[in-house]
Fold:
Amino acid sequence: MKEKAECEVKILSDISIMKPNLTHAEAIGEICRAGWKQTVKGKLSEKYQKKNAEFWYTPSRVASDIEKDRYSYVALIDSEVVGVIGGAMTSEDTGEIFVLYVDENCRYKGIGKNFLKY
Structure:
């Protein structure tokens, strides 16, 4: 993931929420890989973390999952992906969120909360 000095969100209107497309695959993979590894750090072995990240978050796997509508929305700032959410209905009256990650440089700006409005 590209290093960012800081997130350029000043107000929520700086953020665009949209359905992901194939051009977003690499950035989605990077954000998910980093977020997932931070979530499991110290809980799962480095070997398992690497194996899992390489399975789920490669650009080709993410592109395939985008085509299958497994990633619901991305958050963009100036056309750059800074967050992703994916989920689905798992029964007639139950929906589940499978992934919700925000670039660590853009956290605590309301992006995750904004995803939940969709």
Remarks:
- The two ends are 26 Å apart (CA to CA).
- The longest helix spans residues 25-40.
- The mean pLDDT is 90.
- The longest strand covers residues 80-91.
